[in-house]
User: Which sequence fits this backbone?
């Protein structure tokens, strides 16, 4: 399989629900929007820095991240990454998907909520262990990570003293603005910059994602390489060779037909956090001005025993995108139910017909059966398949989804790069908390 073949989209099960001419029209629109993005034009054009990150991020800052990762591997048992939304979801997604490839200190994520039992548990969990903090916030003022940072900073200063604690704290933030920037300069924390022209949910290929992944021992250069190959592929004009255009065109055509909920379904347990990253990327980019496809997710086969009922029989306004991973662990096979090694199968659980078959094979049949049933039940669907889970593939998936949502959001007529709606709850919360000036 060549580098550019690492992701495949099957749109066969969209066609019965949408006219072929509609797809062709949408493909034309996708090409026009992509040209607009390339020329750095249109709504939100100040936030298109992510388009070039697969090549731009491969500079001296990357070596500094790798040096810090090596240092953390020597002096820390655990690294707490503090951030919320776009400032942690990408790193968590890659870490989970690539969990079999990680090494180095344990990575924990904090600052992702305001729930006291979970945060107290995490503070207890790091007791007596050598710790580093990576605090990530572009604005430098977001409440959840700022509150968690205060608690962990307090713990670090008590344990190591102010100066030594500062050597163990790294901040990823804006070059010049925000409370985290000024505190970092005052305390002498090592810092990495989030470029001005890259928004939170498009920042996984900046130090926001790359630093935690480097600390986890992952090959961030390979990840950028995968993204760079996808960047080239998504620049092509042919709809059937350009996955970002095909995905955006199919989604837009389905939306016009009244399908306004998209369920990203997976049969691979380790991609759950990637589905969460996708939900943020698509939800925050498209859901505005009373428009947009609502992004939901299912983890199969688990959710076939819960939401599967709705997917099969509920309101017919949803479509499904299966995110499939080939490969797996083919040596995990169903063993004999035998009283003695090598004996006859007693078949007490009725599974003798599966003896010798791999779990991957059974999982694939579960997928095929589900896709057939959902198609018959009136759920249009796409299948995105990748050959394996490694750094290159994850890098290519990140870039593919980013490019697709940028095109899809613009096709919808919204600015995919702002998030005015998230301010409303903050304003009310700060008023209730008595924040000065709120
Ligand atoms: O995508 C976004 O812009 C948001 O999800 C942000 O990433 C999130 O709100 C965190 O913001 P910040 O990095 O400024 O703390």
Assistant:
């Amino acid at each position: 399989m060549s580098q550019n073949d690492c992701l495949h989209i099957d749109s066969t099960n969209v066609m019965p629900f949408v006219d072929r001419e509609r797809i062709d029209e949408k493909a034309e629109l996708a090409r026009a929007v992509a040209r607009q993005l390339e020329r750095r034009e249109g709504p939100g054009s100040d936030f298109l820095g992510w388009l070039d990150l697969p090549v731009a991020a491969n500079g001296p800052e990357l070596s500094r991240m790798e040096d810090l990762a090596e240092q953390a591997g020597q002096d820390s048992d655990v690294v707490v990454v503090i951030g919320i939304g776009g400032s942690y979801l990408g790193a968590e997604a890659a870490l989970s998907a690539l969990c079999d490839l990680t090494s180095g200190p344990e990575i924990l994520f904090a600052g992702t909520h305001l729930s006291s039992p979970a945060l107290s548990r995490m503070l207890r969990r790091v007791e007596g262990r050598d710790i580093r903090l990576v605090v990530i916030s572009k604005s430098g003022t977001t409440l959840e990570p700022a509150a968690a940072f205060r608690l962990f900073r307090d713990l670090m200063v008590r344990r190591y003293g102010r100066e030594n604690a500062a050597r163990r704290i790294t901040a990823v933030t804006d070059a010049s603005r925000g409370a985290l920037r000024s505190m970092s300069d005052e305390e002498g924390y090592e810092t990495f910059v989030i470029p001005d022209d890259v928004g939170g949910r498009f920042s996984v290929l900046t130090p926001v994602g790359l630093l935690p992944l480097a600390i986890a021992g992952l090959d961030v250069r390979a990840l950028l390489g995968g993204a760079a190959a996808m960047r080239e592929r998504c620049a092509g004009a042919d709809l059937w060779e350009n996955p970002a255009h095909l995905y955006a065109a199919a989604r837009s055509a389905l939306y016009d037909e009244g399908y306004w909920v998209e369920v990203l379904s997976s049969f691979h347990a380790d991609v759950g956090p990637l589905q969460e990253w996708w939900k943020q990327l698509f939800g925050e980019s498209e859901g505005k001005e009373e428009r947009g496809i609502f992004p939901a997710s299912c983890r199969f086969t688990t959710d076939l025993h819960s939401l599967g009922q709705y997917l099969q029989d509920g309101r017919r306004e949803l479509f499904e995108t299966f995110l499939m991973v080939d490969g797996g662990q083919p040596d995990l096979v169903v063993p004999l139910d035998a009283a003695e090694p090598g004996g006859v199968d007693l078949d007490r659980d009725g599974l003798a017909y599966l003896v010798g078959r791999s779990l991957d094979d059974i999982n694939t049949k579960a997928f095929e059966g589900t896709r057939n049933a959902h198609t018959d039940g009136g759920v249009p669907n796409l299948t995105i398949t990748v050959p394996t889970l490694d750094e290159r593939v994850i890098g290519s998936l990140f870039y593919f989804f980013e490019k697709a949502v940028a095109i899809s959001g613009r096709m919808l007529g919204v600015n995919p790069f702002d998030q005015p709606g998230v301010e409303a709850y903050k304003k009310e919360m700060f008023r209730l908390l008595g924040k000065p000036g709120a």
In short: Strands lie at 8-10, 78-82, 106-110, 131-137, 169-173, 190-193, 261-266, 294-299, 318-325, 381-386.
